[in-house]
Write a structure and sequence with these properties.
There is one protein chain. The protein has 523 residues and is mainly alpha-helical. It has 18 helices and two strands. Helices cover 79% and strands 1% of the residues. The chain has a two-stranded antiparallel ribbon. The protein is elongated and about 90 Å long.
C-alpha cells in the first residue's frame, strides 16, 4: 500500500474521531437532561415519562438552534476576518447564554406565535403529544438543514412543526391561518428588506470613504458617524427586542435611549478613530481595520438578543409541557422553570460549539466574499431592519434578514463591478485607433476620479467622440463578458429552497410524528 493511501486513511480516521467526540458530547448532554428531569423534577407516572422525553428532545432542539441559527450573528464577522472562528464561538456562546438567562423572561406562550388555538386541543395528553411532535420535528429539520449547509429560520421551523402537529391533533379549524399569512409574507419581506438596508449602508461607505482620493480624511469624518449610528441602532434593537421579556419600553422611549447612546458613542470614539486613522495607509485594506472592534461588539449584542428571543423556540414547547404536567390544565401562558431555561441556554451554547462552524463558514464566506466594511453593513442591517419592520408591523425573521444582508452586499458588488467594467469598455470603444499611452493615461485619471468626476469624464467623452458602430448582438456579448458573478448562485438557490420548504417540511414531519405517538399510545 502506498504512503499516500496511509495518509488518506489517517485523515479519515481523524475526521471519524472528531465526529464521534462531538456526537458523544451531545449524547452526554441529552443523557444528563434525562437524569436530572427523572430524579430532580419530581414528576412520576405516564406524564412524568413524557416530560422526561420532552426535556431530552428540548435539549436536542436547543443544540440544533445553536448549530444553525447563531451563525447569522457571527458569520459575517468571521468571514471578514474581524474575529477568529474560536473567538466568535466563545463570544457567541457566552452572550447567547447571558441573553437566555438574563433576558429570556419567565413566561412563554404555550403555543408559539398563536398559530394554534389551545381550546381546540382540549385533552392535556394530546397537547403534550402535540408539543413533543413539534419539538422533535423542528429539531430534525434543523439538523438536516445544518447538515446540508443551509441557514434556516428556527422560528419558522418550530412554527411549521406546531402547525402540522396542531392540525393533526385538532383538525384544520385548530390553525390560525391569519397568523400564517404574516409568516409567509416574512419569507419575502425579511431577505429583501435586509438586503436593501445592507446594500444601502455599503454603498454609503463606498461613496463616503473608499471612492475618495484621500480615504484617511474621509474615514476620519465618516467612521465615527457610522459607529454612532451602530450604537443607536443596536441600543434601540436591544431594548425593543433583546430585553422585551424583562423590560417593557415604548418604541419612542427605545428610540430616544438609542439616540442618546449613539450621540454619546460618537463623541467618545471620534478622537480615537481619528488618531488611529492618521496612522494608517491610504488603502481600502487599512481603512477596513477601523471596523474590526465595532464588529466584535455587534457579534456580542446580536448573540445576546438572539439568546433572549430564540430560546423560546427551544424551551417554549417544553415549558408548556411542564406547565400542563404540573397544573393539569392547558393555559395560554406558561411559566418557565429555571431548569428548563438552563436546558435551552446550555443546549444552544453546546450546539454552537460542536456544530456551529459549518454554518458560520457558509454565511461568512461561502455565499460571497466579505471584508469588514461589508460585514459592518450586514450587522447594521440586522438591527435596523428589525426596527423598521417593527414600526411598519411587518413580520420578519432574523435569519432571513442576516442572510439577505449577505446577498445584498454581494449583489451590490456585482452591480458596481459590472457597471465599472462597462464604463472601461465604453472608454476603450471611444478611443479606437488612439495611442495606447493616451488610453492608459485616461484610464488612470478615470480610476482616481470621484464618482461625480467619472460621470463628467464619460459625458465629455461621448460628446466629442462618435459612438462605436456595434450591433445589438455585439453589445450584448460585451455586457456578458463584463458580467461579474460575486454571489454563488448555487448557494442562493439552495438557501432559498430551504427557506420555502421549512414550514411545510417541519409541519408534515410533526404531523407524522404525532400520528405515530398516537398510534403507539392507543395500540
Amino acid at each position: 500500500m502506498e504512503l499516500k493511501n496511509f495518509a488518506d486513511i489517517e485523515k479519515a480516521t481523524k475526521r471519524g474521531r472528531r465526529e464521534s467526540t462531538r456526537l458523544g458530547i451531545g449524547l452526554l448532554f441529552v443523557v444528563g437532561i434525562m437524569i436530572y428531569t427523572a430524579l430532580g423534577v419530581g414528576v412520576t407516572g405516564t406524564q412524568g415519562i413524557m416530560l422526561v422525553v420532552a426535556s431530552m428532545i428540548g435539549g436536542y432542539m436547543a443544540m440544533n438552534i445553536g448549530a444553525n441559527d447563531v451563525a447569522n450573528n457571527v458569520g459575517p464577522a468571521v468571514g471578514s476576518r474581524a474575529i477568529s472562528m474560536v473567538g466568535a464561538i466563545i463570544i457567541a456562546a457566552i452572550f447567547e447564554m447571558l441573553g437566555a438567562l438574563v433576558a429570556g423572561g419567565d413566561v412563554v406562550a404555550t403555543v408559539q406565535k398563536g398559530i394554534i388555538n389551545p381550546a381546540a386541543i382540549a385533552d392535556s395528553n394530546r397537547f403534550i403529544w402535540l408539543m413533543i411532535a413539534a419539538l422533535l420535528a423542528g429539531a430534525i429539520w434543523l439538523n438536516f438543514a445544518t447538515a446540508v449547509g443551509a441557514p434556516v429560520s428556527t422560528t419558522h421551523s418550530i412554527i411549521g412543526a406546531v402547525l402540522g402537529a396542531g392540525i393533526a391533533a385538532g383538525g384544520m379549524d385548530a390553525a390560525n391561518w391569519g397568523t400564517m399569512t404574516g409568516i409567509v409574507a416574512s419569507w419575502i419581506v425579511s431577505p429583501l428588506l435586509g438586503g436593501a438596508v445592507a446594500a444601502g449602508f455599503l454603498y454609503w461607505i463606498k461613496r463616503a470613504i473608499t471612492y475618495k482620493a484621500d480615504m484617511i480624511a474621509a474615514a476620519q469624518r465618516t467612521v465615527p458617524i457610522l459607529i454612532g449610528l451602530m450604537a443607536f441602532a443596536f441600543t434601540t434593537y436591544l431594548v425593543m427586542k433583546g430585553l422585551k421579556q424583562v423590560w417593557k419600553v415604548s418604541t419612542s422611549s427605545a428610540l430616544l435611549l438609542g439616540a442618546a447612546t449613539g450621540i454619546l458613542t460618537y463623541f467618545l470614539t471620534a478622537a480615537n478613530v481619528r488618531r488611529r486613522a492618521a496612522r494608517l495607509e491610504n488603502t481600502k485594506e487599512s481603512i477596513n481595520t477601523l471596523f474590526t472592534l465595532p464588529l466584535v461588539f455587534a457579534a456580542a449584542l446580536l448573540s445576546f438578543a438572539h439568546g433572549a428571543n430564540d430560546v423560546a423556540n427551544a424551551v417554549g414547547p417544553l415549558a408548556a409541557i411542564a406547565d400542563v404536567v404540573h397544573s393539569g390544565q392547558i393555559a395560554s401562558k406558561a411559566s418557565i422553570p429555571f431548569w428548563v431555561m438552563m436546558v435551552g441556554a446550555l443546549g444552544i451554547a453546546i450546539g454552537l460549539t460542536l456544530y456551529g462552524p459549518k454554518l458560520i463558514r457558509t454565511v461568512g464566506s461561502e455565499i460571497t466574499e466579505l471584508d469588514q466594511m461589508r460585514a459592518f453593513s450586514i450587522a447594521m442591517s440586522a438591527a435596523v431592519t428589525v426596527i423598521i419592520a417593527s414600526q411598519l408591523g411587518l413580520p420578519v425573521s432574523s435569519t432571513h434578514i442576516a442572510v439577505g444582508g449577505v446577498f445584498g452586499v454581494g449583489f451590490l458588488r456585482e452591480f458596481i463591478k459590472t457597471n465599472y467594467s462597462q464604463m472601461i469598455d465604453e472608454i476603450k470603444l471611444h478611443h479606437l485607433g488612439a495611442d495606447k499611452d493616451a488610453v492608459e493615461a485616461f484610464l488612470n485619471r478615470f480610476s482616481k476620479a470621484s464618482v461625480k468626476e467619472k460621470r463628467e469624464m464619460l459625458d465629455q467623452l461621448k460628446a466629442r467622440t462618435a459612438q462605436a458602430d456595434l450591433s445589438k448582438y455585439e453589445r450584448k456579448q460585451i455586457r456578458k463578458v463584463y458580467r461579474h458573478e460575486l454571489v454563488k448562485r448555487d448557494a442562493v438557490f439552495k438557501i432559498a429552497a430551504a427557506w420555502i420548504i421549512t414550514v411545510p417540511a417541519s409541519g408534515i414531519m410533526a404531523a407524522m410524528i404525532y400520528y405515530m405517538i398516537f398510534g403507539i399510545v392507543h395500540a
